[in-house]
Amino acid sequence: MPTDAPGPLTETVFYMLLALTRPLHGYGVMLYVRELSGDRVRLGAGTLYGALTSLVEKGWITPVAGAAHDRKKIYVITDAGREAVRAELARLEELLRNGRRIAGEGLQ
């Protein structure tokens, strides 16, 4: 992994970034993450809104322009967020490659 890579993402952050490849408000993110994870990852409101704030601060997501007048803020992933997802996918692929190469069939 390059030295400027963001490091491993939590499962929650990874799913949130995936969800925000399309513009969504917080509740929409909550529902889509639940759907993507097969109902395994459930975000509470406190976790969700804290994570949204953190992702905005990192520059990985941004509020959608023009939606600020709405009560519900709508967010979307940025290019930096897409790069964080790509880096995480590369990291996970490396884990799988090495696990399969070394452990192979021996784990079955």
Description of the molecule:
- This protein has 108 residues and is mainly α.
- It has a single domain (11-107), classed as Arc Repressor Mutant, subunit A (Orthogonal Bundle), CATH 1.10.10.
- 54% of the residues lie in helices and 8% in strands.
- Helix 1 crosses helix 2 (26-36) and helix 2 (26-36) crosses helix 3.
- The longest helix has 24 residues, at 79-102.
- The protein is elongated.
Strand-helix topology:
Elements: H1 11-19, E1 24-25, H2 26-36, H3 45-58, E2 61-63, E3 74-77, H4 79-102
Antiparallel strand pairs: 1-3, 2-3
Q: What are the segments in which pLDDT stays under 50 over at least 5 consecutive residues?
A: none
Secondary structural class: mainly alpha
End-to-end gap: 29 Å
Rounded mean pLDDT is 89
Number of helices: 4
The CATH class is Mainly Alpha
Features:
mainly alpha, Arc Repressor Mutant, subunit A, 3 strands
Provide a compact summary of the structure.
This protein has 108 residues and is mainly α. It has helices spanning 11-19, 26-36, 45-58, 79-102, and strands at residues 24-25, 61-63, 74-77.
